[in-house]
Amino acid sequence: MGSFTKFMASAIFFIVLSFFLVPTRTQEEGFISFVISSKGLEFSKDLLIEQAVSSIIPLQLPQIEKSVKIPLVGQVHVVLSNITIYNVDIASSYVETGDSGIALIASGATANLSMDWCYSYSTWLFDISDHGDASIQVEGMEVGVTLALNGQEGTLKLSVLECGCYVKDISIKLDGGASWLYQGLVDAFEGQIVSAVEDNISKKIREGIMKLDFLLQSLPKQIALDDIAALNVTFVGNPVFSNSSIEFQINGLFMAPNDDFASSLYNKGSLDPVPFNAPAKMVEISLHENVFSSVSLVFFKANYMQWVINKTPDQSLLNTAGWKYIVPQLYKQYPNEDMELNISVSSPPIMTVVNNGINITVYSDVTIGVMDADEVIPVACISLEIHASCSPDILINKLAGTVKLNHVTAYLKWSKIGNLHMHLVQAVLSTILKTVVVPYVNLHLWKGLPLPLPHGFTLHNSEIVSINSRLTIFSDVAIAERSPTSGQEDGTPWPVDGKP
Ligand SMILES: *[C@@H]1O[C@H](CO)[C@@H](O)[C@H](O)[C@H]1NC(C)=O
Ligand SMILES: *[C@@H]1O[C@H](CO)[C@@H](O)[C@H](O)[C@H]1NC(C)=O
Ligand SMILES: *[C@@H]1O[C@H](CO)[C@@H](O)[C@H](O)[C@H]1NC(C)=O
Ligand SMILES: *[C@@H]1O[C@H](CO)[C@@H](O)[C@H](O)[C@H]1NC(C)=O
Ligand SMILES: *[C@@H]1O[C@H](CO)[C@@H](O)[C@H](O)[C@H]1NC(C)=O
Ligand SMILES: *[C@@H]1O[C@H](CO)[C@@H](O)[C@H](O)[C@H]1NC(C)=O
Ligand SMILES: *[C@@H]1O[C@H](CO)[C@@H](O)[C@H](O)[C@H]1NC(C)=O
């Protein structure tokens, strides 16, 4: 394909892109949506170009040789070898999203090349040859690539629609030998060098995109939280391209690893656009409240919502003496005995995203036991309706939170120690929850939930907005400081592997 044709091809990119774009949303939706805004696309573009340039150079072009017929001299054999592009500078670049994909354009690029030259010719008297090196300057290089990004069986498929490289100007400067004499001769090779640069750079870009596609295909479908729960990060449907942003939908529910129990969480209202002035950040990660319900469901089903409490900061709360005035009957029957509380959550906690956080409702049973000669004697059981709220926070690249107890209501289920003053019992149990259970839960919450963020990136300047059953993180993204052990092992163009 000639340079002109390629130039036309890249001109067509713009025409395609300038169509009025209407995002379509008729597909299945996930519980987490991930939007890369125009600011995020800029960031990705710069990163991608930086990676592309460093993976292209040094680029060795094939040797060019040719016999040129020169009047009076005859056939001159010229060989240009060791042609190497060793530097590329990009003046400006931009990224556009279109109906079905992304266009990346780098323009005003320059490239520096070096090469060796030699020529030889034979006269009837003697053979003549000479050689030297040369520097080549390529200017006004335009590189354009349009990419399609589609969902494919839970992963993303990236493919090249168009890829073109166009060189506007080239200058060759020979050094060594009788270079002044042969400069004109070498200029005859300009066209060939230009097409070698154009063809080989386009090919390198296609190769880079294929590598990127391979990495996308090999992204894991789960991110483990621990050995109890994993986040299903399967992509759902196709990415939605709108004016300068891309939105991905991810299943986003937590599940027990390798166990796909049918979840009751598969119905939800659609994720309508958030009706407020969104902060201008690179990415927007939106989590439906069912994401939080799913994690509580997994832990509930794995029997992780039971605690036997036999130690508290105020140990008198766990001795019948401490309950003397609360339940006199208990003290009378078991004077000065240690006690144990078995708190057992009776149904998966209900999580709702409200303005400014998450409200949590937990129904649990507390069995009060008395320690009698190494035996636990259950003496009463109380049902608790616990209302708590959680303030979310970003911890590097995870979503952490702090739970605060708001209100506890206690009901008597059964008792072997007569009637209880429920408002007093409620106050004591509330204190125990606050001093023992809530700090324990917070310790776990501070480990954070994984977010579907590519490996090697962290969030910064994050803002969390919770509204309409959705918690949305608006954030900028930065490349994590890489530790020596987590470096790239090969020349992968993009540090993505999704591992937590
Ligand atoms: C090719 O060129 C580079 C620098 O221009 C030089 O270091 C290298 O030795 C050359 N290779 C050959 C095989 O001439
Ligand atoms: C590339 O060539 C330009 C123009 O000759 C020069 O200014 C620039 O320093 C060169 N860059 C490198 C890295 O050699
Ligand atoms: C590089 O360019 C030359 C000349 O246009 C062409 O013959 C060769 O196939 C190209 N190589 C690649 C890898 O594209
Ligand atoms: C796309 O967004 C840019 C600014 O971000 C705006 O200038 C342009 O008009 C928008 N185009 C459409 C089709 O909405
Ligand atoms: C993960 O999510 C995908 C897409 O919604 C779904 O098809 C798949 O069944 C889920 N995997 C498990 C193990 O639940
Ligand atoms: C705690 O109570 C639950 C439900 O009442 C029961 O299944 C569990 O065995 C009890 N645990 C202990 C250690 O008593
Ligand atoms: C969330 O919890 C707080 C504190 O208990 C309460 O004031 C608020 O009404 C709750 N919001 C919703 C929507 O239930």
Automatic annotation (TrEMBL):
Q: Which SUPFAM superfamilies match?
A: Bactericidal permeability-increasing protein, BPI
Q: Which Gene3D superfamilies match?
A: Bactericidal permeability-increasing protein, domain 1, Bactericidal permeability-increasing protein, domain 2
> Which InterPro entries does the UniProt entry name for this protein?
Bactericidal_perm-incr_a/b_dom, BPI/LBP, BPI/LBP_pln, Lipid-bd_serum_glycop_C, Lipid-bd_serum_glycop_N
GO biological process per UniProt: reactive oxygen species biosynthetic process
Identify the Pfam families for this entry: LBP_BPI_CETP (PF01273), LBP_BPI_CETP_C (PF02886)
Family according to the record: Belongs to the BPI/LBP/Plunc superfamily. BPI/LBP (TC 1.C.40) family.
Name the chain's protein: Lipid-binding serum glycoprotein C-terminal domain-containing protein
